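agent> Task received from the user: take the single chain below, predict its 3D structure, and emit C-alpha cells. No templates, no multimer pairing.
agent> Plan: (1) validate residues, (2) run structure prediction, (3) serialize to C-alpha cells, (4) report one or two observations.
agent> Step 1 OK, no nonstandard residues flagged.
tool_call: predict_structure(input=
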Amino acid sequence: MVQDLETKDDRITTPRVLVVIPAFNEEKSIADVLLRLRAAAPDFDRIVVNDGSRDRTAQVVQELGEKQLRLAANLGYGAALQVGMKYALQQNYEVVVCLDADGQHQPEDAPALVQALLAKDADMVIGSRYCDGRPYDAPLDRRIGQLFFSHLTRLLVGQRIYDTSSGFKALRSATCEILIHMTFMDFHIETIVRLIMLGKKIIEHPVIVYQRTAGYSMHSFASIFAYPLKTLVLTLVTAFDLVLTRRRQ
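)
tool_result: status=success, residues=249
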C-alpha cells in the first residue's frame, strides 16, 4: 500500500518500506516493539532477523504472526542487518528502516525518518539523540566516545555526525546495495564515513531514546575499551581503503 504524505508545497509519495529488526535474545522487548510499530506505521512491512537467539525470541515473533529470518548462529549485529537488507532488495523494497529490538528507540518515530529521507532527498537518515543541541545524556564513557567519534567524522569527511552509533536509520535501496557488500563493519561510524566519501547524503533527525529495561546490551564492561578501539580501526581502514581504491582507478 502506498501512503501519500501532504506538505504545503507538494506531495511526497512514500514508496514500499521494510523495517528490518535485528534481534538477539530479545524475548522481553520484541513484542512491544512490533506491536507499537504495527500501530504507528501500518503501511510499512516488517521483518525480524533472528540472529541465533537462544531464548524465546523466535516463538514470540511467530506467535505475533510476524515474518522472521532465523540465522543458525549468532553472526553479529552488522551481519544480521546485511541479511535483512539483502532480503529487502530481493523483494524490491525502495526504503529500509533499521530498528533495534531492545525498545530503546521509539517505533513511532519510524514514519518521521522516512519522511525526512524523502523530503530532504537524502540517502540515509540517522535517528539522532544528540543533534539540535541536545546534551549527551549518557554514562561518562559513552559521552566521551560519542564526542570523539562525532568529531572524527568531521575530521575525516568534513561533516559532523552527532550520533554515530544510532541503530535507528532509514536508507534508500541504492544505499543498501553498497552496504551489503561491505565487510568488517558494525553499521556505525565506519559505514557513515564510507558513504559520505562515496558522495552519499546523510542527515540526522532528532529522536528520543530511552534506557534499555530488558535483555542485555551488546556492550559489556570489557567493551568499554575494546569497542572504541575496534571502531577506530575499522573507520580508518575504511577511509584508507576507499582512498587507495580511488587512486588505483
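agent> Step 4: summary for the user.
The chain has one domain: 8-248.
agent> Done.
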